[in-house]
Amino acid sequence: MSQDINCVAKIYPNVAGAVVHRRIAAHMQTRVWLALTSLGLAASLAGCSGEAPPAPSRPDWVLQTRVVFFEADGKTSRPGPQHDLRLWMPWVVGDIYGDPNEGELVPATLKPDLSFSLDLNKSREKVGKALIPTSFSQKWMSIEPKEARVARISPFVLPADGIQPEGTCEWLDVDTRDKLMLVYMDRPARIRGEIVYEGRSLRFDIESKEAGYLWIRQPEGSGEFRVAPWPGRVLLAVIAN
């Protein structure tokens, strides 16, 4: 599709069509010419390139959180290991379950007090480029439209000099105590599915209104996986295996 390079005329039709007589001093003409040339170039690049400007950063997408340790019941606190630890934040792309198939997009550094910051704004563009067609490993799950693509951040807490996870990591809403999944969807879409598994009746009804990150509430026992309100505070819980 052809593009009209005269974007300034489109935006300011009255100015573009008017004839205004002004005298510019001789010593200013060179400066004015350079300024207008720079302005025209900037307008061509920003307004006529066809590229969308970078999305603004969202403060709520910067997580200030920490690692905590729980026994296998997911409720009883346990002491953390005495050795140094590190975080690894790979992604599952094309699905929300399964082993990670994409590496870290933005590393997170674990501090000595086990706190860390995770800026999801920095990974937004990278995860968009890493996405692949959705193909759920759980065949009873589906997505509409089928062209929609998904990903899930899959955190691990590891020894600083090792690769054996310290347990299973789950995001935990501090206020509701709900277990959460952190998912990315590239457009408005809906994930659905139902299954009865080991006596549990599970239903998925996850709808995104726009491209971006979603927190998904995971039910205890039977129940529905659904979008949760953006939590005020989350923890990264390491549950003993």
Structure notes:
This protein has 241 residues and is of the alpha+beta class. The chain has 2 domains: 7-47, no CATH class; 59-239, no CATH class. 18% of the residues lie in helices and 34% in strands. It is built from 4 helices and 14 strands. It has helices at 7-11, 13-17, 26-47, 120-130; strands at residues 62-70, 85-88, 91-93, 115-119, 141-144, 150-153, 156-159, 168-173, 179-185, 189-197, 200-208, 212-218, 223-228, 234-239. The strands form 2 sheets. Strands 1, 3, 4, 5, 6, 8, 9, 10, 11, 12, 13 and 14 form a 12-stranded mixed beta sheet that branches. It has a two-stranded antiparallel ribbon with strand order 2-7. The chain starts with 6 loop residues before the first helix and ends with a strand.
Pick out its properties.
single chain, 241 residues, alpha+beta, 2 domains, 12-stranded mixed β-sheet, two-stranded antiparallel ribbon, 4 helices, 14 strands, disordered N terminus
Short description:
The protein has 241 residues and is an alpha+beta fold. The protein is built from four helices and 14 strands.
